[in-house]
Amino acid sequence: MAHLRCIEREPEDSSPPKGFAEIEAELAGLLETGDDGAIRMVDAALAHAAAHNASDVHLEPWRDTSTVRFRIDGILHDVARLPRAHHEKIAGRVKILARIISYVKDTPQDGRIEPDATPCGMALRVSTFPTVEGEKIVIRVLDMGHALFSMDALGFDAQTVEALRNLVMRPNGTILLTGPASSGKTTTIYSLLNEILLRRNPVPHTVTIEDPVECRLGRISQSQVNTHAGFTYEAALKALLRQDPEVVMLGEIRDPETARAAIQAGLTGHLVISTIHSGTAAGVFTRLLDMGVEPYLVASSITGVLSQRLLRRTCPDCAQPYPPDPALAARLGLSVSGEGQPISNSAVNLPSPPLFRRGAGCPACLGIGYRGRMAVGELLLVNEDISNRILSRPRTSDLNDAALAAGMRPLWQDAAARVAAGQTTVEEIARVIGPDPREAK
């Protein structure tokens, strides 16, 4: 859920950003301006990525072209196809900025570009990957701005935000986030850490263990794993616990050893925040049990699990009523009248007046119809009933039913409420969550 904020933009940049055709023409022209053409082209490409709030810039060598693509709101868009002969110079320029070995082309490399190295002042993570056509480079934007790290800005409903705030105020326990890659988990974790800094006084001893450090925060000790040196998640956590931290953030629980160490830390007086891959909030418990963590540790340590996704927002500048696919709407518990209005609702409380809306496409959204993203999620709070059920190694469906009975709002229902409010579309939910969200595992 990366957002760009170009901190050195001129006042005229407040106008709508250039379209892709204009960017392509500009980048192609810069490449023909002499020996520094690749330098100017890379700077311009990053500036345009910032203007479009892209989270990633892809520089890909194809058979006949060097292609520039931006990932905007989770979707890759072709921006420019440039002469193939320039790709090596473009890749070389990025590698120099990232301080990685420029002449190594047959091995993947990772690097970082500091904010003061580009005109827009963005911190960037660079990854190179060899292909048969040359080096493919992906640039991830890391400078997201501290203003983003607010629970109120993520898009969760007020009830979920309040519950998350209550969880981070506890002195111990384990909070886990789950969801696919690029579902906003890191941004949510940074927001939780920011809540701790703002609301807990004095500020607790807080340390992160990440791979890699995506954004450098103030007043928090951050570390980055180095598997080649043996500094793994497990090794880092064991060493860190000797320094008596109060809050520990682990970038990801990947293996049984790290899982056991993290769960044990949450049980012995530390507040642990981490991520783990699972399809649903209830599925996290099954995953941990399958990794060999003892049920009593899971039941006693975990206080809450948040499963989240990111949905694209309907562009506010060109949003208009539309009739959605009735079958997709019905799967969300929404029925559609002949005029495209929701006429009944078995899943959510509809706003008044209710309306299905989608973007028609305009310069502000580059004709896409969506602009920006919001988080939706299901938050499973562990109560006494769920804790007791975990001890008997229940099926995921049984835990999910118990959580629903305790008041958990399922992911698909949260998403359906956004459709009914005109904030997104049923087609977007089908893309992100699946054609039938209630059957997603």
Task: Walk me through this protein's architecture.
The chain has 441 residues and is of the alpha/beta class. It has two domains: 11-141, 2-Layer Sandwich (Beta-Lactamase); 146-313 and 360-409, Rossmann fold, CATH 3.40.50. Helix content is 32%, strand content 24%. It has 14 helices and 17 strands. The strands form four sheets. The protein has a seven-stranded mixed sheet, sandwiched between helices. The protein is globular.
User: Mind telling me the CATH superfamily name of the largest domain?
Assistant: P-loop containing nucleotide triphosphate hydrolases
- Largest β sheet strand count, sense and barrel closure: 7 strands, mixed
**What count of domains describes the coordinates?**
2
Number of strands: 17
Q: Provide the CATH top-level class of the largest domain.
A: Alpha Beta
Beta-strand share of residues: 15-25%
Count helical runs: 14
Helicity range of the residues? 25-40%
What structural class should be given to the helix and strand makeup? Answer: alpha/beta
Main sheet strand line-up? 9-8-10-11-7-12-17
The CA-CA distance between the termini, in Å, is 22 Å
Mean pLDDT: 88
Instruction: Give the uncertain stretches in residue-range form.
Output: 1-13, 338-348
Using the CA coordinates, give the radius of gyration. 23 Å
Within the CATH hierarchy, at the fold level, what is the topology of the largest domain? Rossmann fold
CATH architecture of the largest domain: 3-Layer(aba) Sandwich
**Overall 3D shape:** globular
